[in-house]
Amino acid sequence: SPQIVWLRRDLRLADNPALYAAAQAGPIIPVFVLDDERTGDRKYGGASRWWLHHSLETLAKSFGRHNAALILRRGDRVNILADLAAKTGASAIHANRHYEPWWRKAQGDLKKALPDGCELELHDGNYLMPPGTATTGSGTPYKIYTPFSRALRDLMPPRDELPAPETISQPGELPPSDDLADWGLLPTNPDWATQMAQFWSIGEDAAHERLDWWADHVGEYDEGRNLPSVDQTSQMSPHLHWGEISPVQIWHRLKDKRSDGWRTYESELIWRDYAQNILCQFPRYPEESYRDAIDDAKLWRNPNRGHVIQEELEAWQHGRTGYPIVDAGMRQLWAIGWMHNRVRMIAASFLIKHLLIDWRHGERWFWDTLVDADYASNGVNWQWVAGTGVDSNMFPRIMAPLSQSEKFDAAGYIREWVPELADLPDSEIHDPSDKCRPSDYPAKIIGHKEARERALEAYRAMKDD
Ligand code: FAD
């Protein structure tokens, strides 16, 4: 009998445990349901919708190469899937486990809604190890990255990699599919995605091409990863987020590289697993500060309460803070939907500490603009920078954007993304003096020292209250 494959952020044919199991069990009906408008879900951001469109388009072509069709549906996922199961007489729906709270709920609801004779079969496919695998001696999940990562390494290697199904058969009659173009996932007027389209190649094949390139470069990762001016990170994050490639595939491909670079890269992949583990334990983590000692209502300057603060938030969003490294990052984000990790930290810290604006405004902006926007990774990293999360209290640790810019040699990066400053010499580019600053580039929105003192004072006042 037919096997339905419910695809979500696992848009690949190879190493897809749900698809693999389904294809072995019978003719398959792969389905993607667009359903992100309900309360309790995070609606996809603009950049995510753009990526998703292209990723589904390439996935449909990959199925096409096997003479198979991908079915697209829009609406209530549980009803649609249960209805498909009833109408096609499917004996199972296969899906890879997802851990966003709304996906966990949908998995539970679907189990109950399925017709008799149809089972929900959940598989593990998107992480090095299923979240919850690494636990402390007493069996509880880890909260802190370092012990988590040590425990995960002890449990490695990850599962074996699965091939793509050799043949894919489908039932003679397929349920109808929507037309992707009708979903309106792409921007129209204005089309803000032109630079994104030039920058990225999307889909499973593109992810593997990038991995081929990366296999020759991972050795330099240890030194290169902090330098935004050079292309020395993998840029696999959107491919990983959308599941065009799995971390297990990356791990097996690179494991024999016995370099420091590979070891550090492996730690970053573990960060991705870690973020998911945190989300599983604390489903509201991306929505509110974790630490009880942080009073969000007291600590932050709230943009809803004053137009000056709102203007500052917008200056940050559009890369007009007067801090070249921050502005370069925010403009890179807007242009290509991705920002270098070192600069993500600097830009996030600037919003939180220098502008003293609630991290959740930044998290939302990243959610809307990143092509790798990931509920767990974004929330965990924002709370990490804010010092409001499960880690030791880091709020008073304030990054100095100007010295970070010099230390990590960001001159080339600034020249690329802030063209007004392209002609400044290295001695001026990180922190342009009033004399050298071009008239179309803004003065600093706030001085570093003043901002630092304000943040520490606000923190003290919140604690003393
Ligand atoms: P590489 O350096 O090549 O790392 C390889 C992979 O490891 C990445 O593709 C990613 O999947 C994973 N990874 C690396 N660093 C982290 C990390 N700190 N946390 C979790 N996973 C990591 N990453 C996202 O995938 N989605 C997000 O929404 C996201 N939001 C972030 C927000 C802030 C404020 C910060 C500071 C970081 C955020 N990151 C996020 C983590 C990190 O910046 C990106 O994963 C990385 O820059 C992606 O580029 P890359 O693929 O070249 O990374």
Automatic annotation (TrEMBL):
PROSITE patterns reported in the protein's UniProt record: DNA_PHOTOLYASES_1_1, DNA_PHOTOLYASES_1_2, PHR_CRY_ALPHA_BETA
Record's keyword terms, sorted: Chromophore, FAD, Flavoprotein
Annotated protein name in UniProt: DNA photolyase family protein
Cofactor(s), names only, from the UniProt record: FAD; (6R)-5,10-methylene-5,6,7,8-tetrahydrofolate
Residues in Photolyase/cryptochrome alpha/beta domain copies: 1-128
Stored PANTHER family: CRYPTOCHROME, CRYPTOCHROME CIRCADIAN CLOCK 5 ISOFORM X1
Gene3D superfamilies named in the record: 1.25.40.80, DNA Cyclobutane Dipyrimidine Photolyase, subunit A, domain 3, HUPs
Keyword Flavoprotein: yes
Coiled coil: none
The keyword Flavoprotein is assigned to this record: yes
Family: Belongs to the DNA photolyase family.
Region of interest (Disordered), ranges: 158-181
